[in-house]
Amino acid sequence: MGIPHFLVIPFPTQGHLNPSMQFSHALAKNGCNITFLSTEFNHNKVLMLKAAAASSDHHQDNLLGSKIKLVSFPDGLDPEDERRDLQKLLFSIRNTMPSRLPKLIHEINALEGNNNNYITCIVVTINMGWAFEVGSSLGIKGALLWPASATSLTLCDSIHSFIDDGVVDSEYGLPVKTQKIQLSPDMPLMDPKDLPWCSLGKVYFEHLKQEIKTCKLSAQWWLCNTVYELEPVAFSSSPKLLPIGGPMLTSSDHNPTSFWEEDKTCLHWLDQQPSQSVIYVSFGSWSLLDQNQFTELALGLQLLNMPFLWVVRPGNDEKHAYPDGFMGCISNKGKIVGWAPQKMVLKHHAIACFISHCGWNSTVEGLHGGVPFLCWPFRNDQFVNKFFICEVWKAGLGLHKHENGVISRDEIKKKVEQLLGCEDIKARCLKWKEIVMESMEKEDSQSIRNFQNFIKWTKE
């Protein structure tokens, strides 16, 4: 048997690409070969961003070294189409990419045949389950890389049980009752409106049910970017789930699949700030604030009169106007960047707290940094993550919306001050940091053993 060769196929959003590339780096560190399949739109976007930084001896389709090769397919959309429309993107990919995959696999295998380096396993994130059908027809193993929490995966896997028990309806997946649910006897009650599919609508709910069914039939392993100690209940529910978060967190602080250039000047700026003094604000790659909410956040940061680092993604600063006089008032206190090297930011001693959308990548990175959270979820699994941060791990606080649906500047100021004044939360954050660090650094940690056992399985 040659070196294991993985074909990694993430759904083309930043929240799927990041963990998929971390996973690929971890495989490469273990001597494996990886072909990383992106959409042409994203592939070109990333290559344009990296072209200036790429050294002359690196070919463009091989920027990450000999172990990771980048390839791409069209997603079926026109360049000017809105790829934030999840449903449109999803079904365009489904209609475009599956017919091309067998040819790509045959070409790769023909090229690598002399080295006995055939593709041994296809790894996909959710929404790309069609690739399992192609792989299965060619006798190739399959594994699901779940980009969210293990708990959100077990919730999705339990949809039919929720329907049978009358918790949600069968058409939209929305709560039928107002009563709360309990994921296990030793966990707090959870509001069923926070289930991860509730914000996505009927069409996606139907797709999700079918996608989970496909993964159950075709994916021998469900790999989760987490550690056992964070979510033991999820792992007790299914032997298929495999926590491999440790190796993924240690893969790289740099993100080669980012859609935006990281502004590393913020790290030098953080070096000039006192320890645990800076509020870090970032809502990830997808979430957007309307003008009213943008204004309230800006004024809340101004009211706090503390150093802050605020990520305002490129394009958003053109859509939103800062309050009159805001830039002058915060010129000595705040730094606003288009995109930040978040893993490095959250490990910096100057960070006091993290105002976050509670995406899973951000949640894990915040826990790794030992940083208290102020939770501001927008959609999907972010509400489940907020539930864990606030109610299970007790590593942060939630923000409450006014009756007009806006989180006010006074609420932001009050909750930041409450969070920074709570020594119990700070202590728990440091405890979770130790747990996550141990899963990364101990050679016999469960995450590392799981990862190595997964690689061995692909050789069998």
Question: What does it look like?
Answer:
- With 460 residues, the protein is an alpha/beta fold.
- Helices cover 44% and strands 14% of the residues.
- The chain has helices at 14-29, 40-51, 86-96, 101-112, 130-137, 150-157, 159-164, 202-218, 232-237, 245-249, 265-271, 291-304, 316-319, 326-330, 342-346, 360-369, 382-392, 409-420, 423-441, 446-459; strands spanning 5-9, 33-39, 68-73, 121-124, 141-146, 181-182, 189-190, 221-224, 241-243, 278-282, 308-311, 334-337, 351-356, 373-375, 396-398.
- The strands form three sheets. Strands 3-2-1-4-5-8-9 form a seven-stranded parallel β-sheet. A six-stranded parallel β-sheet has the order 12-11-10-13-14-15, sandwiched between helices. A two-stranded antiparallel ribbon has the order 6-7.
- The radius of gyration is 22 Å and the shape is globular.
- The model is unreliable at 54-63 (pLDDT under 50).
In summary, what is this structure?
The protein is α/β, with parallel strands linked by helices and about 450 residues long.
Radius of gyration: 22 Å
The CATH superfamily title of the largest domain: Glycogen Phosphorylase B
How would you state the average pLDDT, rounded? 88
Strand order of the largest sheet: 3-2-1-4-5-8-9
Shape: globular
Strand-residue proportion: 5-15%
What would the CATH topology of the largest domain be?
A: Rossmann fold
Count of strand segments: 15
Helix-residue proportion:
40-55%
